[in-house]
């Protein structure tokens, strides 16, 4: 579904992403992990067209889409969420979701009907309330719904679990699985490693803009380079024990 080849992004003398290559198989949930400042979100901005790479290529469904605009990529079927959730505060929850729905449903009634269906899919209720009144967990679901309403084939989730408590994380994991089961391929940036272990078939690890490891979640948490750069021995040990018991 997605192939990234030698992707590099420079900001003056800073190399935020350096010669990164990875693949995301169709129908998968693939993880992208690493320390803060590793270049994960920058990689998302390159894949989703918000910035052009300094070098390298992005292939989506077999076609070279490098440097295409976000709106063009959205029409192709790439949607993303953002780390900092910013709903349209003056609109209702349903109207916020409909913003995404209008991409493929230009009529108001059709867009609203599609928005209602997507809202139900992600567990959003009380759709007439102002989006500004939502909790952090509600805003995360709204961000997910707004992206999903565009009808993506590939969904890029940027820390959709950040800021949630353990019970809220447990509640949203089945929603992410159901999105994949509906036919949407997912690439997710995440720091909640228990969720990564549970959801992802394959994980890529970035540190200092470079890909330092890739493999199954179990392989990655046992990789000495990942332990040193990101997890630390204590967390790695707990995750390995959890995987063994799971």
UniProtKB/TrEMBL annotation:
Is Electron transport there in the keyword field? no
GO biological processes: D-alanine transmembrane transport; L-alanine transport; L-isoleucine import across plasma membrane; L-valine import across plasma membrane
Q: Which SUPFAM superfamilies match?
A: P-loop containing nucleoside triphosphate hydrolases
Q: Does the keyword Cell membrane apply?
A: no
Q: Which PROSITE patterns match?
A: ABC_TRANSPORTER_2
Q: Which UniProt keywords apply?
A: ATP-binding, Nucleotide-binding, Transport
For the ABC transporter domain, which residue ranges apply? 2-233
For this record, the Gene Ontology CC terms, alphabetical, are: plasma membrane
Which GO terms fall under molecular function for this chain's record?
ATP binding; ATP hydrolysis activity; L-isoleucine transmembrane transporter activity; L-phenylalanine transmembrane transporter activity; L-valine transmembrane transporter activity
Source superkingdom:
Bacteria
Q: Name one Pfam family in it.
A: BCA_ABC_TP_C
Q: Which InterPro entries does the record associate with it?
A: AAA+_ATPase (IPR003593), ABC_AA/LPS_Transport (IPR051120), ABC_transporter-like_ATP-bd (IPR003439), BCA_ABC_TP_C (IPR032823), P-loop_NTPase (IPR027417)
What is the protein name stated in its UniProt record? ABC transporter ATP-binding protein
Source species? Phreatobacter cathodiphilus
């Amino acid at each position: 579904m997605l192939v990234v080849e030698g992707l590099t992004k420079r900001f003056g003398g800073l190399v935020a992403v350096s010669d990164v290559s990875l693949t995301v198989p169709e129908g998968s949930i693939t993880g992208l992990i690493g320390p803060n400042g590793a270049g994960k979100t920058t990689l998302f901005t390159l894949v989703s067209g918000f910035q052009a790479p300094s070098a390298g290529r992005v292939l989506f469904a077999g076609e070279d889409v490098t440097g295409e605009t976000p709106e063009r990529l959205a029409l192709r079927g790439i949607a993303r969420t953002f780390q900092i959730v910013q709903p349209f505060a003056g609109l209702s929850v349903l109207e916020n979701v409909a913003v995404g729905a209008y991409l493929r449903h230009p009529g108001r009634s059709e867009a609203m009907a599609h928005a209602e269906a997507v809202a139900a899919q992600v567990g959003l209720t009380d759709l007439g309330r102002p989006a500004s009144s939502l909790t952090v967990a509600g805003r995360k679901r709204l961000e997910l719904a707004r992206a999903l309403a565009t009808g993506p084939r590939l969904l890029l989730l940027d820390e959709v679990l950040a800021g949630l408590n353990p019970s809220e994380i447990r509640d949203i994991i089945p929603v992410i699985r159901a999105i994949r089961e509906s036919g949407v391929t997912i690439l997710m940036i995440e720091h909640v490693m228990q969720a990564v272990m549970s959801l992802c078939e394959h994980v890529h690890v970035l540190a200092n803009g470079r890909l330092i490891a890739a493999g199954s979640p179990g392989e990655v948490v046992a990789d000495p380079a990942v332990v040193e750069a990101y997890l630390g021995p204590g967390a790695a040990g707990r995750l390995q024990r959890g995987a063994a018991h799971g």
